[in-house]
Amino acid sequence: MAVDKNMKVLIVDDYQTMLRILRNLLKQLEFNNVTDASDGTKALEALRKEPYGLIISDWNMVPMTGIQLLREVRADPKLKHIPFIMITAESKSENVITAKEAGVSNYIVKPFNAETLKAKLVSVLGEF
Amino acid sequence: MVRSRRKSKAVPRARRGAARELRARIADLRARRDGTLPVRDAIAIIDDVLAAGRRISARGRKLRSEIRRLSEFIHAVRSDIVAVWTDEVKKEFIPTATDELDAIIEATAEATNAIMDAVEAIEKAGDGLTGEPAAKLSEGTTKVYEACGFQDITGQRITKVIKALKEIEHRVDAMVAAFGEEIGAPSAKAATPAPAKTKDGEGTKPVTDEDLLNGPQLKSTAKTQAEIDALLFGT
Fold first, then answer.
1. Is A108 exposed, middle or buried (0-12, 13-18, 19+ CB in 10 A)?
2. Which among A33, A101, A38, A32 has a CA at the least distance from the CA of A70?
3. Is the ipTM of this complex over 0.85?
């Protein structure tokens, strides 16, 4: 099944520059329906307002971290099916294992490049 | 033989009595000082207890002399810390250093945004392009966006340094306070225990969310994307 590039994508990061980088890289991959949030709490508010097809989130944010957001998403019957990609500088094994146990769909370590982002999107959404 | 046996039993009993008294008085002092034990007061108690005992063994005398040497050493370290930990360091140097680091984060964010403004404008100007020129433009702008990610990483690293500076300030404050009021210690917060550390991948304590907030690792210790993929998917 072809990937719907018009799906709503939620990007979550407390660094405005990173949100902008992600938005631009996604735009180059023709994902133009992108919304952003600066932490997990705001992301959850957005997720509960309208349907999203993908979440791409940082880990280290306040007040709600990316891992807390992931757990909230996976615990919510209406949201738990949404693919969740963690993009973070937290690269320790325990972080990756914790995220895996919480149900992360894929994990990208910062700094990353466009090629890695595309590969992970393909792995989560399918070829596009 | 009999006298010698009696003697050898009497000494440990006296020592046990002294040890009990020592423990009781130290516990009492701790309770009165909110859990802290000023070194000077502890030595006074030890001297007192040892002096009260009729028999002070060679080991007891050695212990007392070692405690005195330790006390002198602690006093010397205390003087050094007080000499370095001036109001100037506390009120000026550390806040200035953290302000400067905050300013670096701000400046790099501004510069990164300016770079992205320019790249977005270039992309817009190239909207009509097709074929190879369009591909080359896209490749170039992608590389610029990727490179702009430095701001996020350096920002996180600098934030780590700011946190470390604040932690040093907090701990030295606690240490100065623990040395006693006679040095005019500021109202230091109580020392907090070091956060639980678990070795990468082999933690023995349960890993809390707090333990997982470490920020970027150094290149030498950071996991690569391939290693992360292997952890996630066993590839």
1. buried
2. A101
3. no
Nearest CA in chain A to B138: A28
Is the pTM higher than 0.90?
Answer: no
Q: Which residues of A touch B (CB under 8 A)?
A: 13, 15-18, 20-21, 24-25, 28, 59-60, 65, 67-68, 89-98, 100, 104, 106-114, 116
Beta bridge partners of B29: none
Q: Label residue A56 left, alpha or beta by phi (over 0 means left) and psi (-120 to 50 means alpha).
A: beta
Mutation site, A26, A30, A39, A95, interface B, largest B CB count within 10 A: A95
Q: Find out whether B215 and B222 touch, Cβ atoms under 8 Å.
A: no
Looking at chain A, the number of H-run helices and the number of E-run strands are 5, 5
Nearest CA in chain B to A95: B212
Which chain A residues touch B215 with a CB distance below 8 Å? 60, 89-90
Instruction: Give pLDDT tens digits for A40-52.
Output: 999 999 999 999 9
SS3 A107: strand
From CA B235, how far away is CA B224, in angstroms rounded? 13
Query: Quick check: B141 contacting A, CB < 8 Å?
Result: yes
> Please, what is the angle between helix B58-84 and helix B39-52, to 10°?
160
Token pair, residue A30, equals 């023709």
Output the 3-class SS for B126-151.
Answer: CCCCCHHHHHHHHHHHHHHHHHHCHH
Nearest in space to A109 (alpha carbons), one of B8, B77, B214, B88: B214
Q: Which of B152, B155, B232 sits opposite A107 (nearest CB)?
A: B232
